[in-house]
Amino acid sequence: MNQAMLSKEFKTYEFTHSFIIDVLTWAKDNPGTTIYTDINKSTMTINLKKMINTNRFRGKLQAYVLSLCNCNEIELVYEYYLSFTHNYFKILSGQIKVSINLTKKTISEIKPFFDYVYNNLLDCKSLWDVYNSNAKFVKRNELRKLLSKSYKVCPYCDLVDMNDPTSSNMDHFLPLSEFPFLSVFWGNIVCACSICNGHQIKNNNWAIPILHPYINGIHNNTRFIFNKTDKSIQIEPIHLYDNSPEVNFIKVLKQNIRYNNLWDYVQNEENEIVEEVCELYNAYKGDNWKPIHVIRSVEFRRREHLSNIGKITHSRLRMGYCDYFVLKEAELSMKFLESENKKRQMRIKERQQLIFEEC
Ligand SMILES: [Zn+2]
Questions:
Q1: C-alpha–C-alpha distance, residues 174 and 287, integer Å
Q2: Span from the CA of 218 to the centroid of ligand 1 (angstroms)
Q3: How many angstroms is it from 201 CA to the middle of ligand 1?
Q4: Ligand 1 mean position to 191 CA, how many Å?
Q5: Which residues have CB under 8 Å from 331's CB, separation 6+?
Q6: Which three-class secondary structure state does DSSP give residue 11?
Q7: Band of the pLDDT at 331, cuts 50, 70, 90?
Q8: What superkingdom heads the lineage (predicted)?
């Protein structure tokens, strides 16, 4: 999947960009405003005026915008916002380098506004009426359901079905604790499982450069290492250099911990492969059987798992095992089948000999 292939649901919150720009522009143009009544006397866009004067938000929204215009680094926040939202995917991939050094004080001054927009305003029809009047109003919970239909499994681990609302939630890929200004940026919102999103795994961890779970295809950039002796599963980056997007993804999402104790799935995949290979051998009745049939059979399974990534849980792991099997196990299984074939042909010869002698 790449950005162009993302379904339109992923961009549902794109409209919030104009609102954030209106607010940040106002805040940097009106530094030091402290009195509520001065807000209305100042110049701002018609849309922002409508929002600020909506009875329901007047008190809170006005308090938050006052906090923004009294933030010493508001110009910097504005620049970060623009740069991160315009170049988000290039920044994540490392193509564009941006240092982030907002002070703790700045973060504490701006975060309440961005939290409020994410936690409250997104679910308020008034914001949609003013800034996105032609679109259907979609509450956060409905959007989570829509996203989970588009990408049915957790895009971080590939292990949990996203259809169950109790096991999925919305994650801010670059965390709000450091990047509060990305609270409603569509590219930064990922519908993920509550285990990956929880304290044990991702929590507030982040790194740049890093793979984006919807855009980069984790399966194209990482591979599984299987150890049959201790039944362990490790994930490693395809490119092994330090601080690569792959290395950071594995680290931030604690993929090696996430894939602990999943050997049953690996064993199950192997059993199915062996069963298929034996069926194939029997179908060819030996004579027409060729070792390449084993590889073709496993490659066919691999293609199926690949097409199921994002749709069926564990597809990434199963596909990884098919790759491993072709590399390490196929030769053994081919040797076994070849010796079976030889034995079979010997038996046929012996039988023919017997019939010939009896005649
Ligand atoms: Zn997950």
A1: 58
A2: 13
A3: 9
A4: 9
A5: none
A6: helix
A7: confident
A8: Bacteria
Instruction: Indicate whether 335 pLDDT > 90.
Output: no
> Which token pair is 60?
């809170």
Residues 6+ positions from 70 with CB-CB distance below 8 Å: 31, 32, 33, 34, 109
CA–CA separation, 143 vs 222, rounded Å? 29
How many CA atoms within 13 Å lie on the side-chain side of 11? 12
Domain-wise residue ranges, the chain:
1-208, 263-358
**155 Cα–ligand 1 center, Å:** 7
Q: What is the pLDDT of residues 31-76, one digit of tens each?
A: 998 888 888 899 999 999 999 988 777 789 999 999 999 999 999 9
Containing 305, the helix (H) or strand (E) segment is: helix 292-307
Two tokens at 205?
Answer: 């961890």
**DSSP β-bridge partners for residue 223:** 236
* pTM of the predicted model as reported, rounded to 2 decimal places: 0.89
Q: In sequence order, what are the residues at sequence separation of 6 or more whose Cβ sits closer than 8 angstroms to the Cβ of residue 45?
A: 22, 26
Place of tokens 């993804």: 249
One-letter amino acid of 72 = N
Instruction: In whole angstroms, give the CA distance from residue 130 to residue 51.
Output: 7
Question: Distance, CA 163 to ligand 1 centroid (Å)?
Answer: 13
